């Protein structure tokens, strides 16, 4: 991510995501920008583009020795339903495996049916129920050592 270049597009995307996941709440732009500035210290933000269009983005945080956390995952609405969300989650799983993590975690709003369907299909299970939101977790089985 090039924050200077990508920030306006990310902000537009994040505002849309807020309407879905936190209806009635306003995104605090100062918080969002500073969180993105800090992202490189404990994780990564990756942007996926097609020409000039931002197709999707993935924000990963290295929260603990054993788990990699999907802090944010989003596909541009024009590209929904083509399997890109699933592909982004697969990128997170691949990154977690490379880092030798045992699990991938995320938080989701229950009313976000699209995201809920995606995570359930991919094997995520509820780790904690916060009411309107869930903490979910995908265990990563240890792969056999072929070396
Ligand atoms: C959640 C999100 C990333 C999914 O992206 P996507 O590219 O549409 O995902 P996919 O095409 O891989 O489809 C995901 C799943 O949605 C489900 N789905 C498709 N259409 C649906 C619909 N109309 N209603 C509910 N679920 C639907 C399917 O189960 C599909 O899984 P499958 O491919 O195994 O059948 C995307 O909707 C998004 O960016 N939302 C806004 C940001 C957001 O809420 N992020 C999640 C924060 S936790």
What does this structure look like?
The protein has helices at residues 3-21, 29-42, 84-98, 113-121, and strands spanning 43-50, 53-61, 67-75, 103-109, 125-129, 133-139. It starts with a helix and ends in an 8-residue tail after the last strand. The chain has a single domain, classed as Aminopeptidase, CATH 3.40.630. By secondary structure, the chain is α+β, with helices and mostly antiparallel strands. It has 4 helices and 6 strands. A hairpin with a 5-residue loop joins strand 2 (53-61) and strand 3. Coenzyme A is lined by residues 17, 20-21, 73-75, 80-86, 108, 112-115, 117-118, 121.
Question: At the fourth CATH level, what is the homologous superfamily?
Answer: Gcn5-related N-acetyltransferase (GNAT)
Present as ligands are: coenzyme A
User: Helical amount among residues, as a percent range?
Assistant: 25-40%
Rounded mean pLDDT score:
95
How many helices does DSSP assign? 4
Main sheet properties: 6 strands, mixed
User: What's the CATH class, please?
Assistant: Alpha Beta
Overall number of strands: 6
- Give the low-confidence spans: none
Topology overview:
Elements (H helix, E strand, L loop, with lengths): L2 H19 L7 H14 E8 L2 E9 L5 E9 L8 H15 L4 E7 L3 H9 L3 E5 L3 E7 L8
Parallel strand pairs: 3-4
Antiparallel strand pairs: 1-2, 2-3, 4-6, 5-6
Coenzyme A binds next to helix 1, strand 3, helix 3 and helix 4.
